[in-house]
Amino acid sequence: MPPRLFRRGPVVIFIFGTSAFGGAAYRFFKPSESLHPHDFTPYTLIDKQRVSSTSAIFTLRHSHNIATSSSLREVWKRSIWSLQIKQPQLQIARAYTPLPPEPHINAEDGEDDQVEDIRLLIRQEQGGEMSTYLHRLPEMSTIELRGPHVECEIPEDVTDVVFLAGGTGIAPAMQVAQVLGRRSGSRMSLLWANRRREECVGGVGDVVSSTTNGAQSRRGWRNLFGLIGQSAVPPPSPTSQSPPPLSNIPTKEKGLIVQELEALQAKAQTSSKANLQVQYFVDEENTFIQPSDVATRLQTSNSTDPSSHRKLIFVSGPEGFIDYWAGKKVWSGGREVQGPLGGALSRMDIAGWKVVKL
Ligand SMILES: Cc1cc2nc3c(=O)[nH]c(=O)nc-3n(C[C@H](O)[C@H](O)[C@H](O)COP(=O)(O)OP(=O)(O)OC[C@H]3O[C@@H](n4cnc5c(N)ncnc54)[C@H](O)[C@@H]3O)c2cc1C
Question: What tens digit of pLDDT does each residue of 130-155 get?
């Protein structure tokens, strides 16, 4: 059994139908929507932008230019969602989490006839079947998608979120930021941890971490995250150079995801007076999320009603990261469910907050 990198759902294996009925059924039910939850739809890989030595943003466009459906627009407004990609030779599918439309495009509010691209942040895992296949695909290749699959709905009355993200766990965090950015007066604190600075070049953050260097912090979830990280493709030419200075970095020298986070912050602020704070933690710089960092963000929540579920803590990322902060998810009735709260959050005072493991 290969180790699972994410605990957000089972690896899906599907069987191709080869019967005449299968072909007829496909023709009969051929989806006219931009994305279909059960049938795969062809998209074209129109762009691949490198974020780091191991990750890239893939931009996919509907191969027949079908406009984004109104139902998908609704999903964007209130959900964390994923889709599946099919690997045609191996007959496997894997889940990926679309990034919000580029901040200068109001795609989720778009016109009914608007064709919108789907963007995915995909990390190449060493020996990973799907991620290696995708990273090797040239532009203009066809990639088949199905979805949306809603991982979690964010109820209308949720206005306070603390989001702990590890690695590509940033994708659902950006979806939540996009949802809350529509809600006047909402507040979101995002703590994003990476093993390497290359994933978040120029990410300075809005708040100074309570603890950074030191042996104690090294014993945090660094090793847990490191275990996962060992399976990632190593950088092509590792160096012992110091990371870039973290202040006054021009936009063009900032990483793509950092730029998008800053754009999400600006957009939320101007459109609905929502507040998004981002803090970056980098393993190789000995900065690690500490419980005190989380506690500080919980205290700055503006909601005073402890009985409501208006305040959510999300934990998203590699398995070790989720285990460390919130405990393991468990299997029940053939599906993965939240399981009891464990980990560091279970030892903190989080009264009034509900924890969601992604
Ligand atoms: C809801 C959800 C959303 C997700 N969103 C994203 C996203 O936005 N971006 C993203 O990058 N990922 C995302 N993932 C993870 C993604 O679905 C894949 O799991 C990931 O890309 C790895 O798939 P793979 O086929 O490349 O690796 P796999 O082939 O599944 O291998 C995974 C790891 O196991 C190792 N391995 C494989 N076989 C063995 C073996 N026999 N023995 C030992 N080790 C082995 C591989 O070397 C590799 O490191 C998401 C997952 C879920 C559930």
Answer: 999 999 999 999 999 999 999 999 99
Average pLDDT (106-121) is 71
Average confidence score pLDDT of the chain = 81
CATH superfamily, region 12-152: Translation factors (2.40.30.10)
Side by side, which strands form the sheet with 41-50? Answer: 12-13, 92-96, 79-87, 142-153, 41-50, 55-62, 118-123, 98-99
Average pLDDT (107-122) is 74
* Ligand 1 atom at minimal distance to the Cα of residue 96: 5
**Is residue 94 annotated as involved in ligand binding?**
yes
Tell whether the torsion through CA atoms of 87, 92, 97 and 100 is positive or negative: positive
Mean pLDDT of 77-101: 96
Spatial CA neighbour of 196 closest among 226, 218, 219:
226
Structure tokens at 236: 């092509």
The domain segmentation of the chain, as residue ranges, is 12-152, 153-233+249-357
Residue 190 annotated as lining a ligand binding site: no
CA-closest residue to ligand 1 atom 24: 128
Regarding predicted confidence, which is higher, 220 or 199? Answer: 199
| Strands across the sheet containing 187-194 | 275-282, 187-194, 160-166, 311-316, 354-357
Collapsed DSSP state (helix, strand, coil) of residue 297? helix
Pocket of ligand 1 (CB under 6 A): 2-3, 5-6, 8-9, 82, 94-97, 120-123, 125-132, 151, 168, 171, 231
Q: Is the peptide bond between 148 and the residue preceding it cis, with omega within 30 degrees of 0?
A: yes
Task: Could you list the beta-strand ranges (E) of 195-317.
Answer: 275-282, 311-316
Report which protein residue has its CA nearest ligand 1's atom 11: 122
Q: How far apart are CA 108 and CA 114, in angstroms?
A: 10
The answer to whether domain 12-152 and domain 153-233+249-357 are alike in fold is no
Which is the closest atom of ligand 1 to the Cα of 120?
A: 8
Q: What is the band of 244 on the pLDDT scale with cuts at 50, 70, 90?
A: very low
Mean pLDDT of 21-40: 60
CA distance 187 to 235: 36
